[in-house]
Amino acid sequence: MLLPRVITALILLPLLLGGIFGLGTANLYVAFSLVGVIAAIEWCGFMGVERIALRAAYAGLMAAVLAAVWWLTAGAADAALPALASLIWWCGASVLVVRYPASFPNGPWRPLRMAPLGLLLIAATLITIAALHRQANGPWRLMFMLFIVFAADVGAYLVGRNYGKRKLAPAVSPGKSIEGAIGGLVLVALWAAAAGSYVFQVESLTQLALLIVVSVLTAAVSIIGDLTESLFKRLRGLKDSGTLLPGHGGFLDRIDSILAAAPVFYLGVTLLGM
Predict the structure, then answer these.
(1) Which residues lie closer than 8 Å to 242 by C-beta, 6 or more apart?
(2) Can you give the pTM of this predicted structure?
(3) Using an 8 Å Cβ cutoff, are 170 and 197 in contact?
């Protein structure tokens, strides 16, 4: 299982880097929107929708929403509103995760409730990614945000594997520990302290400290994103969101943390005026 996972990562990483540093913001948004449409098809699994025609219709609706969001935000010049809407959801999702299974007394949510949620989360993520990319030094800002997610995952894995004892959300994801989550947040703080000055050209220790706080909060919300996807899969009895990425599962399995992290980080740096 490890070999397919490594091979898939080695294929995807150059594509990701080439897109971020080689494409303009509009073209990058189009490329990422293709991923968003695939993620929408996988989201149908969380809705319990199996019919191919309905999945295709939802994918088409996602494409239309992504185009409309680009137009409404003037080409990602300002993505504050979708980012704020996403943040509100993730605050509520944290309660759902903590209270699970009592938070779902009637089982999985119906498609009419899940469908708008998928549109919101995927669209908000992609437009805030584009907004970050459009900023000064944008490709590096976007990489900085992605490395927050990577650092949180790596830190959680290393610390949790060696020192994890107390379960973080046993009813949702038994493998995650409180110690691992703390380890991930510490590694994110170190990453922000090391790279923040260069990427954001901060001029004072106060600004750097605020950037570290935003980065750690982003990492914390990214954990909620990961746990929420695990919750939706558990409700539907799914192991993975899809099978397109050997060793990884589906695209949603790879971007679940980013769905939460990108809008939160964009709002944070926007509020800080960075």
Answers:
(1) 38, 41, 42, 45, 249, 250, 251, 252, 253
(2) 0.94
(3) no
